[in-house]
Fold this protein.
Amino acid sequence: GLWALPLLSVPLLLAQLSYRRYAAVRATYRQTIASLARATEIAGCTPAGHARRVADLSQSVGRDLGLTEPDLTVLEYAALMHDIGQLSLVDPVPAGATAALPAPEQRRIALLGGAVVRQTGVDPKVAGIVERQAEPHREQPLAARIVRVVNAYDEKSRAGGPGGPLTALEELRLGTAGEYAPQVVESLARVLSRAAGAGEHADGYEDGGGRP
């Protein structure tokens, strides 16, 4: 009778409250990860915007390769924090360019980064990707392959001047025999080609200088 409507409304109100709480927690979680990612920039370990560029481009490559939305979220978080291991170094890497380091040093920094991520309470999958980003590509999960390729592309393209993006992509293609996963490099090439066709530069930025 008269009590039917209030009784039916209670579960709906509780569900709405739970959803809002979940959304608030999720937003705080993302903000925490973004703040951790910026720590390397604030400390002068990496160039400004590097982590965000790697995260955005990694997600585009992940979509091209068919990753699901949950996997894309994990990929984004790992890409944002892929350099966090540099905070543990006594001597900083010049310009934060880890792709130019010897393989053992790359792996050491990746493991340091994974250890930091595990202490933050972030999804262990994120830490796993950060830890494995410097392994031989045949041993890596797909997300780690993507982070490695996109990180190297961003570092090489920024250091190469006006022709840096094309030179960087060519270097990555030459490195597919050992360092970089061929399918990821070709996916990156497709993503960059589509971006260029949409009026953006090959480095992923619009002609007006804005975010992609």
